[in-house]
Protein backbone atom coordinates (compact mmCIF):
# COMPACT_ATOMS: atom_id res chain seq x y z
CA UNK A 1 0.00 0.00 0.00
CA UNK A 2 2.84 2.39 0.84
CA UNK A 3 4.48 1.72 -2.51
CA UNK A 4 1.16 2.32 -4.27
CA UNK A 5 0.67 5.59 -2.38
CA UNK A 6 4.18 6.76 -3.25
CA UNK A 7 3.53 5.98 -6.92
CA UNK A 8 0.33 8.00 -6.89
CA UNK A 9 2.12 10.91 -5.20
CA UNK A 10 4.84 10.84 -7.85
CA UNK A 11 2.23 10.85 -10.62
CA UNK A 12 0.43 13.78 -9.00
CA UNK A 13 3.69 15.69 -8.57
CA UNK A 14 4.59 15.09 -12.20
CA UNK A 15 1.16 16.34 -13.25
CA UNK A 16 1.58 19.55 -11.27
CA UNK A 17 5.07 20.07 -12.65
CA UNK A 18 3.81 19.69 -16.20
CA UNK A 19 0.98 22.12 -15.52
CA UNK A 20 3.31 24.77 -14.09
CA UNK A 21 5.90 24.43 -16.82
CA UNK A 22 3.58 24.39 -19.82
CA UNK A 23 0.49 26.47 -19.18
CA UNK A 24 1.31 29.30 -21.58
CA UNK A 25 -0.85 29.57 -24.66
CA UNK A 26 0.47 28.71 -28.06
CA UNK A 27 0.72 31.82 -30.30
CA UNK A 28 -1.79 31.73 -33.14
CA UNK A 29 -3.38 28.58 -31.72
CA UNK A 30 -6.98 27.48 -31.54
CA UNK A 31 -9.05 30.15 -29.69
CA UNK A 32 -10.87 27.39 -27.82
CA UNK A 33 -7.55 25.98 -26.62
CA UNK A 34 -5.58 28.86 -25.06
CA UNK A 35 -3.72 26.41 -22.79
CA UNK A 36 -2.50 24.29 -25.69
CA UNK A 37 1.08 23.99 -24.46
CA UNK A 38 -0.08 22.62 -21.12
CA UNK A 39 -2.73 20.43 -22.74
CA UNK A 40 -0.26 18.86 -25.16
CA UNK A 41 2.19 18.18 -22.32
CA UNK A 42 -0.53 16.64 -20.18
CA UNK A 43 -1.73 14.55 -23.12
CA UNK A 44 1.78 13.14 -23.52
CA UNK A 45 1.92 12.43 -19.79
CA UNK A 46 -1.48 10.72 -19.81
CA UNK A 47 -0.50 8.67 -22.83
CA UNK A 48 2.71 7.53 -21.14
CA UNK A 49 0.82 6.47 -18.00
CA UNK A 50 -1.83 4.74 -20.09
CA UNK A 51 0.77 2.85 -22.13
CA UNK A 52 2.64 1.79 -19.00
CA UNK A 53 -0.29 0.90 -16.74
CA UNK A 54 -3.86 1.11 -17.98
CA UNK A 55 -3.52 -0.41 -21.43
CA UNK A 56 -1.74 -3.58 -20.19
CA UNK A 57 -4.25 -3.94 -17.33
CA UNK A 58 -7.30 -3.54 -19.55
CA UNK A 59 -5.83 -5.81 -22.22
CA UNK A 60 -5.34 -8.49 -19.58
CA UNK A 61 -8.88 -7.85 -18.33
CA UNK A 62 -10.32 -8.41 -21.79
CA UNK A 63 -8.36 -11.61 -22.27
CA UNK A 64 -9.22 -12.99 -18.83
CA UNK A 65 -12.92 -12.13 -18.75
CA UNK A 66 -15.37 -13.65 -21.25
CA UNK A 67 -17.49 -11.19 -23.20
CA UNK A 68 -20.73 -11.99 -21.27
CA UNK A 69 -18.98 -11.19 -17.98
CA UNK A 70 -17.60 -7.89 -19.34
CA UNK A 71 -21.05 -7.03 -20.66
CA UNK A 72 -22.56 -7.67 -17.24
CA UNK A 73 -19.93 -5.49 -15.56
CA UNK A 74 -20.59 -2.70 -18.02
CA UNK A 75 -24.34 -3.00 -17.53
CA UNK A 76 -23.90 -2.78 -13.75
CA UNK A 77 -21.94 0.47 -13.91
CA UNK A 78 -24.24 1.90 -16.59
CA UNK A 79 -27.17 1.26 -14.26
CA UNK A 80 -25.42 3.18 -11.48
CA UNK A 81 -24.77 6.06 -13.87
CA UNK A 82 -28.46 6.12 -14.79
CA UNK A 83 -29.20 7.15 -11.19
CA UNK A 84 -27.09 10.30 -11.60
CA UNK A 85 -28.54 10.88 -15.06
CA UNK A 86 -31.99 10.89 -13.48
CA UNK A 87 -30.90 13.58 -11.01
CA UNK A 88 -29.38 15.73 -13.76
CA UNK A 89 -32.42 15.36 -15.99
CA UNK A 90 -34.54 16.60 -13.08
CA UNK A 91 -32.16 19.54 -12.53
CA UNK A 92 -32.44 20.37 -16.23
CA UNK A 93 -36.25 20.30 -16.10
CA UNK A 94 -36.51 17.41 -18.55
CA UNK A 95 -39.34 15.35 -17.06
CA UNK A 96 -39.69 12.85 -19.92
CA UNK A 97 -35.98 12.04 -19.93
CA UNK A 98 -35.96 11.87 -16.14
CA UNK A 99 -38.84 9.38 -16.27
CA UNK A 100 -36.92 7.22 -18.74
CA UNK A 101 -33.85 7.24 -16.46
CA UNK A 102 -35.99 6.41 -13.43
CA UNK A 103 -37.71 3.54 -15.21
CA UNK A 104 -34.38 2.16 -16.41
CA UNK A 105 -32.99 2.09 -12.88
CA UNK A 106 -36.09 0.39 -11.46
CA UNK A 107 -36.34 -2.23 -14.23
CA UNK A 108 -32.63 -3.06 -14.41
CA UNK A 109 -32.15 -3.10 -10.63
CA UNK A 110 -35.06 -5.49 -10.08
CA UNK A 111 -35.61 -7.63 -13.17
CA UNK A 112 -32.02 -7.10 -14.29
CA UNK A 113 -30.50 -8.61 -11.13
CA UNK A 114 -29.00 -5.42 -9.74
CA UNK A 115 -28.16 -4.02 -13.17
CA UNK A 116 -26.06 -6.94 -14.43
CA UNK A 117 -28.69 -7.51 -17.11
CA UNK A 118 -30.26 -4.77 -19.23
CA UNK A 119 -33.94 -5.66 -19.80
CA UNK A 120 -34.76 -1.93 -19.95
CA UNK A 121 -33.08 -1.67 -23.35
CA UNK A 122 -35.02 -4.70 -24.57
CA UNK A 123 -38.16 -2.90 -23.39
CA UNK A 124 -37.02 0.10 -25.47
CA UNK A 125 -36.65 2.39 -22.49
CA UNK A 126 -34.13 4.89 -23.79
CA UNK A 127 -30.99 5.87 -21.92
CA UNK A 128 -30.35 9.61 -21.64
CA UNK A 129 -26.87 10.14 -20.25
CA UNK A 130 -26.51 13.42 -18.37
CA UNK A 131 -23.80 14.71 -16.05
CA UNK A 132 -23.35 17.80 -13.95
CA UNK A 133 -21.30 19.54 -16.63
CA UNK A 134 -24.30 19.33 -18.95
CA UNK A 135 -26.51 20.60 -16.14
CA UNK A 136 -24.22 23.60 -15.63
CA UNK A 137 -24.39 24.26 -19.38
CA UNK A 138 -28.20 24.13 -19.20
CA UNK A 139 -28.00 26.73 -16.43
CA UNK A 140 -25.93 28.97 -18.71
CA UNK A 141 -22.40 28.31 -17.45
CA UNK A 142 -19.96 28.70 -20.39
CA UNK A 143 -17.60 25.81 -21.18
CA UNK A 144 -14.40 27.75 -20.72
CA UNK A 145 -11.14 26.65 -22.34
CA UNK A 146 -10.38 23.13 -23.46
CA UNK A 147 -8.57 21.41 -20.60
CA UNK A 148 -6.85 18.03 -20.39
CA UNK A 149 -7.34 16.58 -16.92
CA UNK A 150 -4.40 14.63 -15.43
CA UNK A 151 -4.97 10.88 -15.91
CA UNK A 152 -8.59 11.45 -17.09
CA UNK A 153 -8.11 13.15 -20.45
CA UNK A 154 -10.09 15.69 -22.52
CA UNK A 155 -12.47 18.09 -20.83
CA UNK A 156 -13.28 21.78 -20.55
CA UNK A 157 -12.78 23.98 -17.52
CA UNK A 158 -16.50 23.80 -16.71
CA UNK A 159 -16.66 20.03 -17.03
CA UNK A 160 -13.44 19.54 -15.06
CA UNK A 161 -14.82 21.61 -12.18
CA UNK A 162 -18.01 19.54 -12.25
CA UNK A 163 -16.15 16.23 -11.85
CA UNK A 164 -16.31 16.21 -8.03
CA UNK A 165 -20.11 16.51 -8.23
CA UNK A 166 -20.25 13.67 -10.77
CA UNK A 167 -18.04 11.55 -8.54
CA UNK A 168 -20.15 12.22 -5.46
CA UNK A 169 -23.38 11.67 -7.39
CA UNK A 170 -22.44 8.12 -8.39
CA UNK A 171 -24.01 5.62 -5.94
CA UNK A 172 -20.84 3.52 -5.71
CA UNK A 173 -19.07 6.37 -3.89
CA UNK A 174 -21.51 5.94 -0.99
CA UNK A 175 -20.66 2.30 -0.28
CA UNK A 176 -19.67 2.10 3.39
CA UNK A 177 -16.94 -0.50 3.01
CA UNK A 178 -13.77 1.32 1.93
CA UNK A 179 -12.29 -1.83 0.39
CA UNK A 180 -15.43 -2.53 -1.63
CA UNK A 181 -15.76 1.11 -2.65
CA UNK A 182 -12.16 1.23 -3.89
CA UNK A 183 -12.57 -2.10 -5.68
CA UNK A 184 -15.69 -0.83 -7.47
CA UNK A 185 -13.89 2.38 -8.45
CA UNK A 186 -10.94 0.43 -9.88
CA UNK A 187 -13.20 -2.00 -11.75
CA UNK A 188 -15.26 0.88 -13.12
CA UNK A 189 -12.13 2.58 -14.42
CA UNK A 190 -10.84 -0.63 -16.01
CA UNK A 191 -14.25 -1.32 -17.57
CA UNK A 192 -14.47 2.19 -19.02
CA UNK A 193 -10.91 1.98 -20.39
CA UNK A 194 -11.50 -1.47 -21.88
CA UNK A 195 -14.32 -0.08 -24.01
CA UNK A 196 -11.80 2.22 -25.67
CA UNK A 197 -9.28 -0.43 -26.67
CA UNK A 198 -8.67 -0.13 -30.38
CA UNK A 199 -9.79 3.48 -30.59
CA UNK A 200 -6.18 4.68 -30.39
CA UNK A 201 -5.35 2.87 -33.63
CA UNK A 202 -8.21 4.65 -35.37
CA UNK A 203 -7.09 8.03 -34.04
CA UNK A 204 -3.45 7.49 -34.96
CA UNK A 205 -4.44 6.79 -38.55
CA UNK A 206 -7.04 9.53 -38.80
CA UNK A 207 -4.85 12.61 -38.54
CA UNK A 208 -1.25 13.76 -38.62
CA UNK A 209 -1.88 15.69 -35.40
CA UNK A 210 -3.51 13.20 -33.03
CA UNK A 211 -3.87 15.86 -30.33
CA UNK A 212 -5.78 18.34 -32.52
CA UNK A 213 -7.98 15.59 -33.94
CA UNK A 214 -8.88 14.30 -30.47
CA UNK A 215 -9.51 17.82 -29.16
CA UNK A 216 -11.79 18.84 -32.03
CA UNK A 217 -13.68 15.54 -32.04
CA UNK A 218 -14.20 15.71 -28.28
CA UNK A 219 -15.39 19.34 -28.36
CA UNK A 220 -17.82 18.51 -31.16
CA UNK A 221 -19.21 15.52 -29.27
CA UNK A 222 -19.50 17.50 -26.07
CA UNK A 223 -21.35 20.31 -27.83
CA UNK A 224 -23.71 17.73 -29.27
CA UNK A 225 -24.25 16.25 -25.78
CA UNK A 226 -25.01 19.64 -24.23
CA UNK A 227 -27.66 20.40 -26.85
CA UNK A 228 -29.17 16.90 -26.73
CA UNK A 229 -28.10 16.09 -30.27
CA UNK A 230 -29.53 19.29 -31.73
CA UNK A 231 -26.85 22.02 -31.51
CA UNK A 232 -27.69 25.42 -33.01
CA UNK A 233 -26.56 25.75 -36.62
CA UNK A 234 -26.16 29.52 -36.66
CA UNK A 235 -22.61 30.73 -35.88
CA UNK A 236 -24.15 33.60 -33.89
CA UNK A 237 -25.53 31.06 -31.44
CA UNK A 238 -22.20 29.31 -30.98
CA UNK A 239 -21.71 28.22 -27.39
CA UNK A 240 -17.96 28.54 -27.33
CA UNK A 241 -17.24 25.33 -29.22
CA UNK A 242 -15.91 25.34 -32.81
CA UNK A 243 -18.53 25.48 -35.58
CA UNK A 244 -17.73 22.17 -37.26
CA UNK A 245 -20.57 22.54 -39.76
CA UNK A 246 -18.82 25.62 -41.14
CA UNK A 247 -15.04 25.40 -40.57
CA UNK A 248 -14.40 28.74 -42.31
CA UNK A 249 -16.75 30.66 -40.06
CA UNK A 250 -15.23 33.20 -37.69
CA UNK A 251 -15.73 32.16 -34.06
CA UNK A 252 -18.40 34.16 -32.34
CA UNK A 253 -17.21 36.88 -30.00
CA UNK A 254 -19.59 35.69 -27.33
CA UNK A 255 -17.88 32.87 -25.35
CA UNK A 256 -21.05 30.91 -24.85
CA UNK A 257 -24.57 30.79 -26.19
CA UNK A 258 -27.81 30.75 -24.33
CA UNK A 259 -28.27 27.71 -22.12
CA UNK A 260 -29.33 24.52 -23.83
CA UNK A 261 -32.74 24.97 -22.23
CA UNK A 262 -33.22 28.13 -24.29
CA UNK A 263 -31.74 26.61 -27.42
CA UNK A 264 -34.31 23.81 -27.49
CA UNK A 265 -37.09 25.61 -25.71
CA UNK A 266 -36.50 23.57 -22.57
CA UNK A 267 -38.15 20.53 -24.12
CA UNK A 268 -36.64 17.12 -23.30
Inertia-based shape: globular
User: Uncertain segments of ≥5 residues (pLDDT<50)?
Assistant: 1-25, 243-268
Rg (CA only): 20 Å
Task: Count the beta strands.
Answer: 2
Distance between the termini: 47 Å
Number of DSSP helical runs: 11
Order of helices and strands: HHHHHHEEHHHHH
The structural class is: mainly alpha
Name some characteristics of this structure.
two-stranded antiparallel sheet, mainly alpha, globular, disordered C terminus, 268 residues, single chain, 2 strands
Element layout with pairings:
Layout: H1 2-21, H2 36-64, H3 67-91, H4 95-110, H5 119-122, H6 132-138, E1 146-149, E2 153-156, H7 157-169, H8 178-194, H9 199-206, H10 210-226, H11 260-263
Antiparallel strand pairs: 1-2
Helix pairs in contact: 1-2, 2-8, 3-4, 3-8, 6-7
What's the short story on this structure?
The chain is an all-alpha fold and 268 residues long. Helix content is 60%, strand content 3%.
Describe the structure.
- With 268 residues, the chain is an all-alpha fold.
- It is built from 11 helices and 2 strands.
- The chain has helices at 2-21, 36-64, 67-91, 95-110, 119-122, 132-138, 157-169, 178-194, 199-206, 210-226, 260-263; strands spanning 146-149, 153-156.
- It has a two-stranded antiparallel ribbon with strand order 1-2.
- Strand 1 and strand 2 form a beta hairpin.
- Helix 2 (36-64) packs across helix 8 and helix 6 (132-138) crosses helix 7 (157-169).
- The termini are far apart.
